[in-house]
Amino acid sequence: MRFPFRNVALIGKQRTPEIAGPLLRLAEFLTARGVTVVVDTLTAQHFEVHPYTELSLAEIGEVVDLAVVMGGDGTMLNIARTLSLHHVPLVGVNQGSAF
Length: 99
Fold this sequence. Notes:
alpha/beta; 4 helices; 99 residues
């Protein structure tokens, strides 16, 4: 299968180290399919070691075709506000807390 997105950013909820595992698995999946993956600098702080380029949100907005955001509603809204200036489409994966 050929992906229409060639450059994808992965962004996770701040101060949530448990987000690292799912994001790294997604990064491996995308990379195996020829997609270039970049990671938000704040998200990358949760990874011990990784081969992905770290970029600020402003830099991400300039270079990616898609951003995948893992977190709750607040995380998604915050990232959407920032990346909307660059017309970057988002995919949200809700990892918010349960009631």
